Amino acid sequence: MTAPVKSSPLGLTVLALLHYRPLHPYGLQQLIKQWGKEQVVNVGQRAGLYRTIERLHAGGLIAVRQTERDQQYPERTVYEVTAEGRAVARQWLEQMLAVPKSEFPVFPAALSNVPMLTPAEALEVLEKRAEHLAAQRTDLEARQAVDAGSGLPRVTLIENEYVHAMVVAEERWVRAVISDLRNGDLTWSPELLAAFAEHYEAPSAD
Amino acid sequence: MTAPVKSSPLGLTVLALLHYRPLHPYGLQQLIKQWGKEQVVNVGQRAGLYRTIERLHAGGLIAVRQTERDQQYPERTVYEVTAEGRAVARQWLEQMLAVPKSEFPVFPAALSNVPMLTPAEALEVLEKRAEHLAAQRTDLEARQAVDAGSGLPRVTLIENEYVHAMVVAEERWVRAVISDLRNGDLTWSPELLAAFAEHYEAPSAD
DNA sequence: CGAAACTAGTTGCACTGAGACTAGGTGCAG
DNA sequence: CTGCACCTAGTCTCAGTGCAACTAGTTTCG
C-alpha cells in the first residue's frame, strides 16, 4: 500500500479531465484554459501541473497510455485515469464540496491589523480595493454574458457564479465599511487603542 | 542590501504586535490567541511562527531586545520591531488591503468538477456544506455577541465582521443552488455533458 | 535572415501546513 | 509518592505550492 495521494484542486481537475479522454500534460493545460478554468485552478505555471501529474502517477491514480512523438515536438506522454483514480476523484470531490476548509486568506489577516492606520488612511486603501473588486466583478459579468450565449449547460459554469457571488459580497462589505468610515460610525485613535491594549496583559514577558 | 522579506499574514501580525511591546515568540502566540486572531492568521503550529520570526530577524525588520531566563523555563529571546520593520509593516498592510490577491481556494475548483456527480449526489453534498456553514456562522455570531459586551472598539474586531459576511454570502449561495437543484432549475445528465464535451476539441492529442 | 513569440518541459528556491519529537514543569489521582 | 496526563517552549522533517528562470526547438513577421 503506497501512501495515499493528497488531494489538491489541480489533482482533482486532472483526474476529471482525464475522464473525458487520455491526454498529455500540455494538452491538459490547454484544455483547462479552453474551459475557462484557469481562474479557479492555477495552472499558470506549468511546474505545478507536471509535479501533480507525477504525484498522481506515483500513486497509481493515472497510468501512461502511450508515449508518442510528433517529430517536431518533444516527446509527449499521454496519461489515462485508472479505476482507482476514478474512485479517488469522486471521494476528493465529495470531501471538497461537503466540508468547507479554513484557508487563511490574506485580506482578513490584514484587516485585523487595520488599527495600525489612521481612519483616513484606511478609507483610502479600502477605496482602492473597492475599485479593484468592481473591475474584477465587471470582468466576470462580461465573461458570463459571453458564456450565456454559448449554449453550454449551466452546471459547467457554476464555479463562475460562485466566484461572482463572493466578489459581489466582498465589494458590498468593503463599501459598507467605507461609508461607515466616511460618516464616522467607524473610527478610532491611537490613544484609544493604546488604552484598550493595556487591558490585554500578555503572558510573562519581562 | 539583503533580499527584501516577503510579506505574509503572520509576518505582518508579528510586526504589528511588536509595535505594542517587545515580546518573545511564545508570548506572541499567546497574544494572538488572546486577541482571537487564531481564526485569521494560522499560528496553530508554532513552526511557522518561529520560521517567520527568523525571517523577519534576518531581514532586519525585528531585533533581539534581550535574552532572559526565568530559571524554570527555557531561555526566551525577546524581540522588538526596528524602524525599518515599522515602515515595512505599513507597506505590507497597505498592499494587502488595497489589492485583492487571487488565491485559489479549493471550493470553486471542486465546483468546477461538479458535473462528475449526478444532480442528486450534488444536492446531498451541498446540503452537508450548508450545514457546516450554518454551524460556522452561528459560532461567529456567538463570538460577536461576547465581543460586543467587552467594550472593545469596533475596529479591533473588524476582521470578524468580514469573515461573517463572507460565510453568510457563501451559505446563501449554496442554499440558492440547493433550491435550484431541488426544483429542477439546475440539472444535467451524463449524455448531455458528453455531447457538449465533444464540441471542445482538445489540442492534438492522439 | 534575424528577432520575437510560442510550444513544451525542467529545475531550483523560498515558503506553507501539518505533524512528530524533545524536554522540563505542573497538577492530580490512585 | 508515584505515575499519568497535560502544559510550556522550541526544533525538525516532509510534502506540497507559487514563482521564476532556463533549455531548446518552432513559427511568425518585419
UniProtKB/TrEMBL annotation, chains A, B:
Gene3D superfamilies: Winged helix-like DNA-binding domain superfamily/Winged helix DNA-binding domain. SUPFAM superfamilies: Winged helix' DNA-binding domain. Residues 14-90 form the Transcription regulator PadR N-terminal domain. Pfam families: PadR. InterPro entries: Metal_resp_DNA-bind_regulator, Tscrpt_reg_PadR_N, WH-like_DNA-bd_sf, WH_DNA-bd_sf. This is PadR family transcriptional regulator. It comes from Streptomyces inhibens.
